[in-house]
Design a protein that fits this description.
single chain; mainly alpha; 16 helices; 79% helix; 0% strand
């Protein structure tokens, strides 16, 4: 899985963007079934694992997938059903968007808690060479992201942010009209400095993890990693937390404005995409995954 796709998963923090769990994949069902591979590829982008670590990671991923499919997908389906029903009655108002946004955000903490034990096991098992490799790859990845997202002056960065946002919006609303494009450009201009703060917060969290890894054989290591995973804002710094809270409200407002400026065709397009995604999730079955996960390293 490429870094851009991993990053697209992490944009799933807002009403429309949150449903982009499978951004870039032509088939939701196929992407979900092979998420095991994506996780493994992502881990091995940063750390060269031993055979024993690979086997344990496979087992942890398979358990995670089974839990998520059986426990969490029904919650996604219910949320999408409510959203689809509301879209059938007209354009959602600001309070409706905030409510859906809040409901969707409640899906993240259980996933993070479920991921934590496996992450602690893997990180605890790293040797000194693997920790050095992780540190080097994190630093290189950060440099690549700075080159990608901070290329050019402030105006160029804002324009690139607007183009990314327009592309995501069109995936869910269809071709945007002039007013909607103008709204996105204005929103992007108002978010100057956001990318820098986001990247700095991300790097702060990575440094906190690397610092924790220096004490990975100590009794408190598991608790430290658990806190970093389940309360990541604490590791990213105050500037990040303040900016991201503000950004959440700004994105919620942008979504409302885009819908209000839209035409019937935009609402129909969104409703169709929501129905399609709900149908894909509903069609997924939660069978054991040896045909997918356990053979990855065989």
């Amino acid at each position: 899985m490429s870094h851009s796709k991993v990053r697209s998963v992490r944009t799933a923090a807002l009403l429309l963007v949150l449903i982009l769990v499978v951004t870039g994949c032509s088939s939701t069902r196929l992407a979900y079934r092979y998420a095991d591979w994506g996780i493994v590829w992502w881990v091995e982008d940063f750390i060269t694992l031993t055979t024993a670590q690979k086997q344990q990671l496979n087992a942890d991923i398979d358990e995670l997938r089974q839990w998520h499919c059986s426990t969490e997908l029904p919650r996604y389906q219910a949320w999408l059903h409510d959203l689809r029903s509301e879209l059938a009655t007209g354009k959602p108002g600001p309070a409706d968007i905030r409510r859906h946004q809040d409901q969707l955000l409640t899906l993240l903490p259980p996933l993070m808690r479920q991921i934590t034990p496996g992450a602690v096991r893997l990180l605890s098992s790293l040797n000194d060479e693997q920790v050095r490799e992780l540190a080097e790859n994190m630093a290189e990845n950060h440099r690549e992201m700075e080159e990608e997202f901070l290329a050019g002056d402030a105006e160029t960065i804002a324009q690139a942010r607007a183009e990314r946002t327009e592309e995501r919006a069109e995936r869910w609303l269809g071709s945007l009209n002039a007013t909607q494009k103008s709204l996105i450009n204005d929103w992007s201009e108002s978010r100057k400095g956001q990318t820098e703060i986001w990247l700095a917060g991300r790097r702060n969290w990575q440094k906190a993890l690397l610092n924790a890894l220096e004490n990975r054989n100590e009794p408190g290591f598991g608790a430290t990693v658990t806190e970093l995973i389940n309360n990541p804002e604490a590791g990213r710094g105050d500037a990040y937390a303040k900016r991201m809270d503000d950004s959440m409200a700004a994105m919620s407002s942008l979504i409302q404005q885009l819908l209000q400026a839209g035409e019937a065709s935009h609402l129909d397009h969104l409703a169709s995409k929501v129905s399609e995604l709900r149908g894909d999730f509903k069609a997924l079955t939660c069978v054991s995954g040896p045909e997918v996960a356990s053979h990855i390293y065989n």
